[in-house]
Structure formats: C-alpha cells, structure tokens
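Lab channel / #folding
Pinned by the channel admin:
"Please post every new chain as: sequence first, then the structure tokens as a reply. Keep commentary short and put observations after the output so the thread stays searchable."

First post following the new format, from NK:
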Amino acid sequence: MTFTEAEIEYLAGQRLGRLATAGADARPHVVPVSFRYDRQLGTIECGGIHVDTTKKWRDVQANPWAAFVVDDLLSVDPWRPRMLEVRGRAEAVPTGGDALGPGFGGAFIRIHPEKKNSFGI
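Reply from TO:
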C-alpha cells in the first residue's frame, strides 16, 4: 500500500492524529497521539512522552492491529472536511522515538499500513 503525494503532504502538515487499538479483550481504545510519516519505511510512527507506560502500548503487544486517523476542516462555509484513515499491523518499538521529533519520547508505535481511506485530500 502506498500513499499519494497529496496524502503525504497532508500528513506532513498535521501534528495530531488518533490511534485506535484493542487489547486481548477486544475492547476498543482511541487516543490522540503525535505522529510522523516515515517516507523511507512507508510507516506511520505514533508517539507520546511515555508511550511504553500506556494502554495503547499494552494493547499493541496483545493485539497487533490498529487504526490511525488524521482529520480536519479546511473550511466550514462551505463545509470541507478532510481525513486520512490507515489500518494495519502495529509494532511496539522500545527505543529511538526521542529522535523522531516533538511529542515523542523514547518508545513509539509503528504502523505498517495495509489499508487506507481518504476524503477531501
């Protein structure tokens, strides 16, 4: 799965997304996260200051599937929403996040996209 240049540009212009996970109990959990797109790997890297102490970190270790959404409103008159949803395998990466940029601590979650859905981009 690949992103279009317009989708990559959209991701680069956003700071927060929402990461949805489900643990071994299959109960959903969604939280805002910092993120960046890794053009070389084709992955979405989701962060936070203490990711490795959170439910989303434990969820990804128990159930490696996640969804990620970035959305905004380009205007309200006329109504022009934009969004990009990504679903795929998630990986808990214990180190290296602090080099990824603002809003990242040492650990981070890497999503390997398998499906995407976009609107207005």
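NK: The longest strand covers residues 79-93.
TO: also worth noting, The chain has a mean pLDDT of 95.
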